[in-house]
From TrEMBL:
GO terms for cellular component: plasma membrane. Pfam families: Scramblase. One of its GO terms (molecular function) is phospholipid scramblase activity. Signal peptide: none annotated. This is Scramblase. It comes from Plesiocystis pacifica SIR-1. InterPro entries: Scramblase, Tubby-like_C.
Length: 204
């Protein structure tokens, strides 16, 4: 199933898959996710890539959620439909988004904010087309704002006390409002992975 077909849905679930070794130790492995329909059927797969061997392990273990990464989103046949690239930065994370052929689609840029979590959603030319706003009193919710109105939402879902205590495997609900363009839907889905790394990756 291609990405355009997926984003026509009103909502998606992004579910992180954790390895047993990472659940019971502090060893950091590459992140993997399933992108599911609201009824639970897997529609796409997302997998982090990076350096192999000892060097890759040391980078992941030392930098943890601050590490640079590449995530490939693929369909059931293994065809790439979206490529995500987070470059290394000391402050204010960024995620560059490309389609399966390597054509730039836009970017997610973290913005400085004292009392809230904020990101700009940029198109391929660098123009801001929407913002992500995580209110201080609702730390697990990120509103997609365009033209001063909420048009979509990314929400971390509670996984239960035992799961939350033992692992940082996260689940997100992504809601697409009818006013969202295909471009904005694609970039909002991509932003979910950066939000996971920035705010939820090291909470196990």
């Amino acid at each position: 199933m291609s990405l355009p077909a997926v984003i026509r849905s009103d909502s998606l679930v992004v579910r992180q898959k954790k390895e047993l070794t990472e659940m019971f130790t502090d060893l950091e492995s590459r992140n993997n996710y399933a992108i599911e329909s609201p009824t639970g059927g897997t529609m796409l797969y997302a997998a982090e890539s990076g350096k192999d061997g000892v060097m890759g392990f040391l980078v992941r273990s030392a930098l943890k959620s601050s590490r640079p990464f590449k995530i490939s989103i693929r369909d059931a046949r293994g065809a790439s439909v979206l490529e995500l690239d987070r470059p290394w930065r000391w402050f204010l994370a960024r995620l560059d988004v490309f389609d399966g052929k390597g054509v730039a689609q836009g970017a997610i840029q973290q913005r400085w904010s004292l009392l809230a979590k904020r990101f700009s959603i940029l198109d391929a030319s660098g123009k801001e087309v929407a913002q992500l706003h995580g209110p201080m009193l609702r730390p697990w919710t990120f509103k997609v704002m365009a033209g001063g109105s909420e048009v979509g939402k990314i929400s971390k879902q509670w996984g239960g006390l035992l799961r939350e205590a033992m692992t940082d495997a996260d689940t997100f609900g992504v809601e697409f409002g009818p006013a969202m363009t295909p471009q904005l839907r694609t970039l909002t889905l991509a932003a979910t992975f950066l939000i996971d790394f920035c705010y939820f990756e090291d909470n196990g």
